[in-house]
Amino acid sequence: MAMKPIVSEAGAFYARDRAWHPPAFTPQYKSTVLRSPRHALLSLGPTMSELTGPVFGHDMLGPHDNDLIVNFSHGGEAIGQRIIVHGQILDENARPVPGTLMEIWQANAGGRYRHKREGYRAALDPNFGGCGRVITDENGWYSFRTVKPGAYPWPNGGNDWRPAHIHFSVFGHAFAQRLISQMYFEGDPMIWQCPIVGTIPDRQAVEQLIARLDRNNTVPMDALAYRFDIVLRGRRSTLFENRPEGN
Amino acid sequence: MAFEPKFMKESPSQTAGPYVHIGLTPNLQDITGVYKTDPGAQMLTPGTKGERIAITGRVLDGSGMAVADAVLEIWQADADGSYGGAHGPSSNTTPAFTGWGRKATDSEGRYRFETIKPGRVPGPDGKPMAPHVTLWIVARGINTGLHTRIYFDDEAGANAADPVLTRIMDTRRRPTLVAKRSVEDGKVIYTHDICLQGEDETVFFDI
Q1: What is the secondary structure of A178-227 as a DSSP string?
Q2: B92 has a pLDDT exceeding 60
Q3: Who among B24, B89, B167 is closest to A98 (CB)?
Q4: Measured between alpha carbons, how far is A159 from A156 in angstroms, rounded to an integer?
Q5: Is any Cβ of chain A less than 8 angstroms from the Cβ of B60?
Q6: 10 Å Cβ neighbour count for B36?
Q7: What span, in angstroms and rounded, lies between the C-alpha atoms of A183 and A187?
Q8: What is the pLDDT of residue A4?
Q9: Which of A61, B21, B48, B107 has its C-alpha lying 20 to 30 A from B122's C-alpha?
């Protein structure tokens, strides 16, 4: 039977490893109890609707979009431990993902979010908004400058605290690659006490979300650096469609 | 040397949390002056071709309560059934319709997209799928973003042959993906609630 080859960019994505990701229902994180679907997810073969995705041009970016120390400045710089967070966005085939939008958000150095529903008593920083974004370069690299976010308490158990973390959102090149997750910091003992981190069943998977201190890229007398690589879903590079020619 | 493919694991997902708006819709959260506009807030431009529609509805949890802190993104074809991939990453021209939108739910769990009715896109078998938008939902309490679709109830014939809808074995669940058309003041509105859990749980995909 003659097979019809498909070009590499049209290959199907590897199935998402659902044992690597957190399951939907994780009662130690109470908000999941009523927000987790109970039916099995419907497995779909890839269609154009999932193999394509929005593209963002550099023209959307302002000059300070990736610098959270100054992008919400009301006359000064954000207070806190100055850090650079940088790394590469790759796919599961270890190929760089260029030209993709990455958005981040975080609490300030005191652990306080600039948000209407925030209930922690730590002070707001008038010069810190908490959002930033960047588009990866031709080799998939990104970098941000920000302040290290503080740990903070949240209403879940009687006395749960989140480890310091930065939320991130990445698009990739296909809607099937869409990912939101959180980045943690090397050496933080609170990572292993967190009910949200604990939704991830595999310790090795958690390790993948921990940024490493990167002394080589530290700016002397200015900012520490953390290296954090992100992996998006990859797709088959050589694919033979399982149906006869001409169909 | 033998061929040894390098393979990495996908970064595991974590919930978007309750403060997702700071990152994805900062202007809506009164964090102004950082981004000119919230990305995806406005899908239509004067040059967008196609029938203007609104897609609106509520996001509900397993007890029927409003999910007031969700963010929804839609991805859709243009009126001719093409996706906006031609807009390259280094391009500085904005297309008339990108096909992508992003909205937060309000205090009643309600969302609303002002967009156009998408055209038909070829399915895996080459035959056109029924018109649909792809929908992705994140929120506090959702550990991995949920993928689903919205179809249109005035496309009954196309829906009956759609490769995704017909894949849902329990036919009673198919309507959870189909929005209901109405006309208000001459404006076409499709209403579609999304139930994360419970009797009317929406069909979500592993794509």
Answers
A1: -EEEEEEETT-GGGGG-TTGGGS--HHHHHTTEEEE-GGG-BTTTBEEEE
A2: no
A3: B89
A4: 8
A5: no
A6: 10
A7: 13
A8: 40
A9: B48
Catalytic (active site) residue A38: no
- Residue written as tokens 């933080």? A188
Q: Please provide residue A216's backbone torsions phi and psi, each rounded to the nearest 5 degrees.
A: -65, -30
CB of B183 within 8 Å of any CB in chain A?
A: no
Q: Is A184 a catalytic residue?
A: no
Task: Give the start-to-end residue ranges of the domains of chain B.
Answer: 38-195
> How do B205-206 and A224-227 pair as beta strands?
unpaired
Nearest-angstrom CA–CA distance, A61 and B70: 25
Span A102-112, average pLDDT: 98
Which residues 84-143 in chain A show a CB within 8 A of chain B? Answer: 90-94, 98-101, 103-107, 113-118, 129-133, 135
pLDDT at residue A79 above 60? yes
What is the complex's ipTM, to 2 decimals? 0.94
**Do B143 and A57 lie within an 8 Å CB cutoff?**
no
Strands (E), chain B: 52-60, 71-76, 100-104, 110-116, 132-138, 146-152, 178-184, 187-191, 194-195, 205-206
Dist. CA A127–CA A130, nearest whole Å: 9
Q: Is B5 on the interface with A (CB under 8 A)?
A: yes
A34 closest CB neighbour out of B36, B63, B143: B63
In chain A, what are the domains?
3-23+53-231 (2.60.130.10)
Residues of B in Cβ contact (< 8 Å) with A31: 15, 140-141
Regarding the domain delimited by B38-195, which CATH topology (the fold level of the hierarchy) does it fall under? Protocatechuate 3,4-Dioxygenase, subunit A (2.60.130)
CA distances from A44 to A206, A218, B6, B99, B149 (A): 27, 45, 26, 21, 12
CA neighbours closer than 13 Å in the CB half-sphere of residue B21: 20
Q: Which of A114, A167, A227, A236 is catalytic?
A: A167
- pTM, entire model: 0.94
Q: Which amino acid is located at A73 in the chain?
A: S
In this model, does residue B89 exceed pLDDT 50? Answer: no
Ordered DSSP codes for A91-139: ETTS-B-TT-EEEEE---TTS--SSTT----SPP-TT---EEEEE--TT
> Could you say which residues from 215 to 234 on chain A have a Cβ atom under 8 Å away from some Cβ of chain B?
230-234
